[in-house]
């Protein structure tokens, strides 16, 4: 299943130098421990800087969106084979 | 003698998707362009709607890139997605995400600039790099440098984003070399091997020989590089005019080693293929105006005004026409560009055929002058445009729209030379 969405999530992160690495995602009542950050890319919405984190655990792929202005995390894409 | 690298990502957009989502690796996937039931990824990430990708039909959409696995099953770039799914029913179709690809392209170009004397971007996923000095002038140094670049691409773009690299004395040969080993190849063609190397390649692999020229050459008896070499220059010039020089030289592995700098644009344009054929003048004008507003905004952003406009129309049966007009006064506003274009377009358009694509382009670009207009109306318009441009800068494209274009909406292009979000 491959789905696009825009759901608010809680994300725990590690800070390493100037980089942040998502470690755990709470989506509703479910908690996912992230194994790997596969790709990080940025985008602009006007002057607002957005970062997308493509992450995965053993069974799922998730794309997380971080709004650097509001520091809000959203889950925007999930894929489970 | 120069040493040129040509680097070409393998199955670019698909590899980036497989890099982002490891569950797609090893699967036949296709990255779809915009289509009737495709989605705009950026919009989907902002909206409140949940969208199941496997339920989208991707009608009127084409395969912009197929993964290596899909290519092995016969799926080709630019094939309609319905046709690709017929060949490979298990293929997954992914909506293209230009922002993701744009960032990887930027990282790729930054890596090249770090190592090379000069760089020429050739497309979104291809570039030439002059490494004559950086390599120390020899092919061993060039090979080591190419491996360093490859390692940096793996680190910074991801292990699944591989490139094929060609090293040679000119751009033509370097590209031919990189095309010869895919995926993840490294082919070095030192000058003394160039003539023999060219002989081993099919004419279809030459950058600059498309289907039409290949057919024309076939009629002259040239079906391979060896037979092309036998054709005299005089015959090639009489058949192909000045292009004959290129054909004569390329058969001998000769070509330019000069990398081209990116100059100011000669024109700024936008075209759009609609999800359904447009059938009324009103619909066409609305979409033309929305496209012209985009062109005008890009022009103003780059501090240009236009003295010429051109437009083109493609019908449902792929027939169509194009036109060009010189303007009395320089244009800066989307409404002016749309109206000037519409004056010509409406005379020629055959609405009964259904319009599949329209395009508008501004050319004869001049730098915006510093002085204000003498007329109050013009000054007011300039202030409005400045204010609208500020809104666009702050909130992004789509932050404002004319009331008359509210029914139009354009999905971001996935393929092509430029990404919409960067313009």
Explain what this protein looks like in three dimensions.
The complex is a heterodimer of chains A (81) and B (423). Chain A has strands at residues 2-8, 10-16, 19-27, 30-33, 36-45, 48-56, 61-67, 72-79. By secondary structure, chain A is mainly beta. Chain A has one domain. Chain B has 423 residues and is an alpha+beta fold. Chain B folds into three domains: 1-191, Reverse transcriptase/Diguanylate cyclase domain (Alpha-Beta Plaits), CATH 3.30.70.270; 202-262, 5' to 3' exonuclease, C-terminal subdomain (DNA polymerase, domain 1); 267-422, DNA polymerase, Y-family, little finger domain (Dna Ligase, domain 1), CATH 3.30.1490.100. Helix content of chain B is 39%, strand content 21%. In chain B, β8 (163-168), α7 and β9 form a beta-alpha-beta unit. In chain B, α5 (98-115) packs antiparallel against α6 and α11 crosses α12. Chain B starts with a strand and ends in a 28-residue tail after the last helix. The model of chain B has no long low-confidence stretch (mean pLDDT 89). The A-B interface holds A 1-6, 36, 38-39, 41-48, 52, 54, 56, 61, 63, 65, 74, 76-77, 79-81 and B 16, 19-24, 39, 41-42, 44-48, 50-54, 92, 94, 99-100, 103-104, 158, 392-396, 399, 421.
Overview in brief:
By secondary structure, chain A is an all-beta fold. Chain A is built from no helices and eight strands.
- Mean pLDDT over the residues of chain B: 89
Q: What radius of gyration of chain B results from the CA coordinates?
A: 24 Å
Q: Describe the sheet with the most strands of chain A.
A: 5 strands, antiparallel
Give unreliable regions of chain A as ranges: none
Q: What structural class results from the helix and strand content of chain B? A: alpha+beta
- Examine the coordinates and then state which fold CATH places here, giving the name of the CATH topology of the largest domain in chain B: Alpha-Beta Plaits
According to DSSP, the number of beta strands of chain B is 14
> Which H/E pattern describes the elements of chain B?
EHEHEEHHEHEEHEHEHHHHHEHEEHEEH
Average of the residue pLDDT scores of chain A: 93
Task: Note the total helix count of chain B.
Answer: 15
The major β-sheet of chain B equals:
5 strands, mixed
What gap, in angstroms, lies between the N and C termini of chain A?
6 Å
**Overall structural domain count of chain A:** 1
- Roughly how much helix do the residues of chain A carry, as a percent range? under 10%
Rg of chain A, Å, rounded: 12 Å
CATH class of the largest domain in chain B: Alpha Beta
β-strand number of chain A: 8
Residues in β-strands, percent of chain B: 15-25%
């Amino acid at each position: 299943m491959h789905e696009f969405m825009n759901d608010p999530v809680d994300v725990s992160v590690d800070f390493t130098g100037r980089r942040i690495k998502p470690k755990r995602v709470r989506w509703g009542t479910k908690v996912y421990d992230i194994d790997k950050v596969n790709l990080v890319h940025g985008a602009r919405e006007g002057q607002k800087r957005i970062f997308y984190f493509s992450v995965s655990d053993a069974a799922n792929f998730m794309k997380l969106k971080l709004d650097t202005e509001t520091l809000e995390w959203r889950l925007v894409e999930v894929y489970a084979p | 003698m120069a040493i040129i690298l040509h680097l070409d990502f393998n199955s670019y957009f698909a590899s980036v998707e497989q890099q982002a989502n490891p569950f797609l690796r090893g699967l036949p996937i296709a990255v779809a362009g915009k289509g009737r039931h495709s989605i705009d990824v950026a919009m989907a990430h902002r909206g409140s709607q949940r969208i199941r990708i496997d339920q989208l039909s991707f009608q009127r959409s084409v395969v912009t890139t197929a993964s290596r696995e899909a290519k092995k099953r016969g799926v080709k770039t630019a094939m309609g997605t319905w046709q690709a799914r017929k060949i490979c029913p298990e293929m997954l179709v992914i909506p293209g995400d230009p922002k993701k690809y744009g960032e990887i392209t930027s990282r790729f170009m930054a890596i090249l600039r770090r190592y090379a004397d000069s760089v020429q971007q050739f497309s979104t996923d291809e570039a030439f790099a002059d490494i004559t000095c950086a390599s120390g002038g020899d092919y061993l140094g060039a090979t080591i440098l190419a491996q360093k670049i490859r390692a940096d691409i793996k680190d910074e773009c991801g292990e699944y984003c591989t490139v094929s690299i060609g090293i040679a004395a000119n751009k033509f040969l370097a590209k031919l070399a990189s095309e010869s080993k895919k995926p993840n190849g490294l082919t070095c063609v030192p000058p003394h091997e160039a003539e023999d190397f060219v002989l081993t390649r099919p004419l279809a692999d030459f950058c600059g020989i498309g289907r039409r020229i290949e057919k024309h050459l076939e009629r002259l008896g040239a079906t391979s590089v060896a037979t092309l070499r036998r054709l005299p220059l005089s015959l090639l010039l009489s058949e192909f005019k000045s292009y004959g020089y290129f054909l004569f030289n390329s058969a001998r592995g000769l070509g330019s080693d000069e990398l081209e700098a990116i100059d100011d644009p000669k024109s700024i344009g936008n075209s759009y293929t609609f999800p359904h054929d447009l059938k009324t003048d009103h619909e066409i004008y609305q979409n033309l105006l929305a496209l012209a507003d985009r062109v005008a905004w890009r022009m103003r952003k780059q501090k240009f005004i236009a003295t010429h406009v051109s437009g083109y129309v493609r019908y449902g049966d792929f027939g169509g026409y194009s036109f060009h007009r010189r303007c009395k006064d320089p244009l800066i506003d989307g409404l002016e560009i749309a109206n000037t274009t519409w004056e010509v377009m409406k005379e020629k358009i055959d609405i009964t055929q259904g319009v599949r694509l329209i395009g508008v382009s501004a050319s004869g670009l001049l730098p915006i002058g510093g002085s204000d207009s003498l007329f109050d109306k013009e000054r007011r318009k300039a202030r409005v445009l400045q204010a609208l441009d500020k809104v666009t800068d702050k909130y992004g494209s789509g932050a404002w729209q004319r009331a008359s274009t509210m029914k139009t909406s354009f999905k971001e292009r996935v393929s092509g030379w430029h990404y919409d979000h960067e313009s």
